[in-house]
Amino acid sequence: MRPAPGSCPSVPPEPDSIMIDPPPPQSPWHPFLTRADFEFAEFTLDASLSRRQCDTLISLVRRLIKGEDTFTFECVADLQKGWARAAQSRVAPVHT
Description:
mainly alpha
């Protein structure tokens, strides 16, 4: 039987041309090990941090996790108050 004019005969696709979706990742942040790792990586990318800046931030986070230091800022206003206090005391920032 001939196909109707304007219609295409049904031809099965070649096996190599079948698109198969990959299995879903085990977590939404895959391939990062944790959500925090993903969010940190995303932050450093969005902020365009340099390698040195990333290393500095990672060192700070590690010190906080280990309990070797404390972090008192809860918002940007706290950071701004810290800079204002530093400006009033005319003390140059300490570079580590």
